[in-house]
Amino acid sequence: MHDPYAWPLGPDAYAAVPLLCIAYALLARRHTPELWRVACFAAAMLLLLAVLATPLDTLALHHLLSAHLLQNVVLAEWAPGLVVLAIPPALGRRLHVPLALALPLWLATYFFWHVPAVYDFALRHHPVLHLEHTTYFASGLALWWPVVHGRYAPQTKAVYLFIAFVLASPLGLLLALLPQPVYGFYEERPTMWGLSHLADQQIAGVTMAAEQAVVFFAAFAWFFVRFLNEEERAPERLPKASARSSPPSRSSRS
User: Fold this and answer.
1) Can you give the pLDDT at residue 230?
2) What DSSP assignment string belongs to 170-191?
3) Which of 83, 89, 125, 231 has the highest count of CB atoms within 10 angstroms of its CB?
4) Which residue from 74, 189, 185, 69 is spatially nearest to 125, judged by alpha carbons?
5) Whole-number Å distance between alpha carbons of 59 and 142
6) Residue 24, number of CB atoms within 10 A of its CB
């Protein structure tokens, strides 16, 4: 029987993480990042190692849909977001990623790989699974890039994040509410800790929906508060701008 707690030796983490670290080190030599940005990058690499280079990966590949969906969340949302935060603004603003491109790309990637036939095929063919993980990460970078480095107004970013949550959340809710397991790959394999396949799927769906609610709402709230603060300061700036633009009085010209 396959050891469910075996440590994996796949290339996803052991190749990708060192390459990303080398790339970031080279970037830091040209554009020195603040310490908190370095911490964001380190956190992203630790997350990738946690889901791809620990027994969690073994559980995801052989036993638990919930473990695999946790991998997907880290690869498509958390780790890319932290990497984008780690990029210095002087460099990040050189690359323009339109909102209208980033969100459809991320959504299409997310929903495509969760189609049951595609999902099962990728799990049975590891080169395809590596491609899945790569596209998750790349589309996640695209999703967060205009939020962090885009020259958009705070209210625009807030609306973008709200739309992202509204369009992405039905996937997790659907998995939680379906009365039958939908991924044949996991139905053919034993679960862990006495979970039924349906319970495993329900946990996966609820976890995904809750995670997206927290992450996207927190980011939405950040930019919405920034928008409100700018609106409060606008009346204070208006009189000063009017005073600078008003013509001099007659007495001053005489």
Assistant:
1) 84
2) HHHHHHHH-SS---HHHHTS--
3) 83
4) 185
5) 29
6) 20
As a whole number of angstroms, the distance between CA 97 and CA 34 comes to: 23
In the chain, what are the domain boundaries? 11-230
Report which secondary-structure segment, H or E, holds 252.
helix 250-253
Pull the structure tokens for residue 200.
């495993």
Helices and strands (DSSP H and E) totals, the chain: 13, 0
DSSP state of 78: I
Per the model's pLDDT, the better-predicted residue between 233 and 104 turns out to be: 104
CB 48 within 8 A of CB 13: yes
Q: Which residue's entry shows tokens 């491609």?
A: 131
Element (H, E) at 110: helix 99-113
pLDDT at 5: 83
Which pLDDT belongs to residue 109? 97
Show the tokens assigned to 196: 């039924």
Helix (H) or strand (E) holding 7: none
pLDDT in tens, 119-174: 999 999 999 999 999 999 999 999 999 999 999 999 999 999 999 999 999 999 99
Q: Which of 188, 198, 181, 140 lies closest to 164, judged by CA?
A: 140
DSSP 191-241: -STT--HHHHHHHHHHHHHHHHHHHHHHHHHHHHHHHHHHHHHHHHHHHHH
Burial of 174 (0-12, 13-18, 19+ CB in 10 A): middle
- Quick: pLDDT tens for 212-237: 889 999 999 999 999 888 888 766 65
- Round to whole Å and give the CA distance between 234 and 244: 16
